[in-house]
From TrEMBL, chains A, B:
Species, as recorded: Parapedobacter indicus
Family according to the record: Belongs to the NADH dehydrogenase family.
Enzyme class: oxidoreductase
GO molecular function: NADH dehydrogenase (quinone) (non-electrogenic) activity
EC numbers, comma separated: 1.6.5.9
Protein name: NADH:ubiquinone reductase (non-electrogenic)
All residue ranges annotated as the FAD/NAD(P)-binding domain in the record: 12-330
Reactions performed catalytically: a quinone + NADH + H(+) = a quinol + NAD(+)
UniProt entry tagged with the keyword Oxidoreductase: yes
């Protein structure tokens, strides 16, 4: 064991993952009699709900990524390390990581989810996921590269592959991403590329279910589909993707689209280190927990957020994979840990559903808050306000506001930069299971 | 020949490079009876004077990089292509590029300069250059990675290599870069990394000449050195670097410093496609031109900016490699081309020297404007104003202003992100010659 991490006077809470859940645990343990150690592969927290705006050039990456050290610089009981946690040894209460062994008293697995390609290696290799800043920046580069490349093709058929953009998955991410790409087509394409016509570019949104935004209200689904169609997005429902070789995407109904760009937002799956009993890993590669976020069968090990499945009679599939669940579980768990340390009885987690929303293009959104449902321009303002206020850091809120305001007034989001040219990986980028 | 680029009714001016010189030529030819084609490897113009602020996390990359298509979207006679120009065939007036053959009537080589490692392969491989946005972002990542890695080393000697930062080259770039790294040490290090002390980190500026800023006035050199020392930068003068293996930098006087990070701003050299007579390539790999920017011995081929050496009796070494030379030559050349087309006599280039400046840390700068020389706080305001106004794009000026203001008030520049983890290249990144 690495002695550097083992000489502590208070119990050590180790949190794996600086996402929405992990940072809430750490914050809620400020000034408590515990040592908090946060581990993440990256040095920043990512505001995932706005990744699609980085991918489509409205926002710069630093506006939605916040350095974790800066976030916690006033918290004395906090330590941060960039680390990849490889395994959990629950018997010895240690983690095996790429920076050595780390001991814990309480372990919180807040490792979130990664893209789920449902076992299709071709799709995993050729389609582009969007779960972190690097991937979003890659999408921005690749969209621009393909439009540039299209100008070099004189054959119309060949050219179309570069100008067909296919988004797979009709959840909020797919809806927002396809809407934003359609805005590029509608407002930017012919100005930046006078050689091209609007009609040369096509944006598709492909969904396997009979409707998009299936987790929102029927009104939200219907309106979102209408708004997308008004923007010119071709919405394909009840369509199953069977393959994508980098040039042609094929569907179960026999149809196919020539395209260089498939953006994959069709599913996620939990990701976590080894050492978890496979019997408690459920659908979506999530770790089953009890109602106190405790991993079933493990002592002092907890899981929260997208990686966790708190399955009860009322919730046979666990909570939805959204930020508020992770945040509420994080705050809840920190309180329970404090209760445990002071010998008080622990409590059960209770999720408060604040609602769901998605934005479509520059003036429209759909919002469900319990029974209250509204869509359109006012919903779009609500969406903007909620997201702006949720960003971490004063600078990020100001810069994002300016970018949005200039973009709204000029129809001309400015960050169409190719800094790191994107090339398809030579091998599959993430382990593919499920 | 690619027919796509050859069917034109007006003479075609092809510009290689969208730097300070290239964009001025293109702008000045707006609404003239020429076709303008701009070629660049990147899709954006880079404001190189502020690269060091991206490298040190004060500014985000999009603030100093501006998409070339957006810059020229209102110019009808303008075409842009991302292209790597491989060779010039002056006989047939065509360019060989990675996107096919391109014909020209007038060719402007505005390809700028790349880092000069003076033939030292080890340095070229292990030291980090800073001539484009990608390289600046790599430096930002690598500085942060090394500070993170230092926390994992218990051996003081071993740790010091991660916390010694060596900047080679005492020109404006080296001075500004070392000053900004010293500010990280002075104001950020112990807040973000409570495990570290200020004294653990060292910043060196190494210069082969007896003074820094050798091209500025003696007062500027002296004051800049004083300001750097006040910031805690160890300024090493009259020191020649002999090698760097990635762990230890060695000097001609036998001294050596253990360091993982050597930032190389010790020299530049022109870069240009093949097809230029080697007899007219002078010191610094620059192309010799006459006083009208015409490449010696070539017809209708011109060179401007850092890649050009307009050698005259008064200027035996040509103009300095600074943005105003490139900009003035660009505007001058566009006018001369218009004169040629209308049968008027051409003129000779005359450089108007607007002066030089460099900033050191958060409150100090040195400014030389002809005989007027001043240093200190007011100079720093002048420096800021000039650079802010020189940025392209309203958004970029606003965002940069906000970043500077927040940074100034909080001592806490925010963009300390590692998005693309930096790894040393496996081979030398640029051709190394002299």
């Amino acid at each position: 064991m690495n002695t550097q991490y083992s000489n502590h006077k208070f119990p050590r809470v180790v949190i794996i993952g600086g996402g929405f859940g992990g940072i809430e645990v750490a914050k809620a343990l400020k000034n408590k009699e515990v040592e908090v150690m946060l581990l993440d592969r990256n040095n920043h927290h990512t505001f995932q709900p706005l990744l699609y705006q980085v991918a489509t050039g409205t926002l710069d990456a630093p506006s939605i990524a916040f350095p974790l050290r800066k976030m916690f610089r006033k918290q004395e009981n906090f330590t941060f390390r960039i680390a990849d946690v490889l395994g959990i040894d629950a018997t010895n209460k240690t983690l095996d990581t790429d920076i050595g062994s780390i001991s814990y008293d309480y372990l919180i697995i807040a490792t979130g989810a990664t893209t789920n390609f449902f076992g299709n290696q071709d799709i995993a290799h050729n389609a582009m996921p969007m779960k972190n800043v690097k991937e979003a920046v890659s999408i921005r580069s690749f969209i621009l590269q393909n439009i540039e490349d299209s100008l070099l093709k004189t054959d119309t058929e060949e050219r179309s592959a570069y100008l067909n953009f296919v988004v797979v998955g009709g959840g909020p991410t797919g809806v927002e991403l396809s809407g934003a790409i359609a805005e590029i087509r509608n407002h930017i394409l012919t100005k930046d590329y006078p050689e091209l016509k609007k009609e040369d570019m096509n944006v598709y949104l492909v969904e396997g279910l009979p409707k998009i935004l299936a987790n929102l209200s029927p009104q939200a689904s219907e309106k979102a589909e209408l708004y997308l169609k008004e923007l010119g997005v071709k919405v394909l429902l009840n369509v199953q993707v069977t393959g994508y070789d980098g040039d042609i995407i094929t569907f179960a109904d026999g149809n196919r689209i020539k395209t260089k760009t498939v953006l994959w937002s069709a599913g996620v799956m939990g990701q976590f280190p080894s050492g978890i009993n496979p019997d408690i890993v459920v659908r979506g590669n999530r770790i089953r927990t009890d109602e106190e976020c405790r991993v079933i069968g493990m002592k002092d090990v907890f899981a929260i957020g997208d990686v966790a499945a708190m399955i009860t009679d009322e919730l046979p599939r666990g909570h939805p994979g959204v930020a508020p669940v992770a945040q509420q579980q994080g705050r809840f768990l920190a309180k329970n840990i404090i209760r445990m340390l002071s010998g008080q009885p622990t409590e059960k987690f209770n999720y408060f559903d604040k609602g769901s929303m998605a934005t479509i293009g520059r003036n429209k959104a759909v919002v469900d808050i319990g029974k209250i449902r509204f869509q359109g321009f006012f919903a779009w303002w609500v969406w903007m306000f909620v997201h702006l206020m949720s960003l971490v850091g004063f600078r990020n809120r100001v810069v994002t506001f300016i970018n949005w305001a200039i973009n709204y007034l000029t129809f001309n989001a400015g960050i169409r930069l190719i800094i790191h040219k994107y090339r398809r990986p030579e091998r599959v980028r993430e382990p593919v299971n499920e």
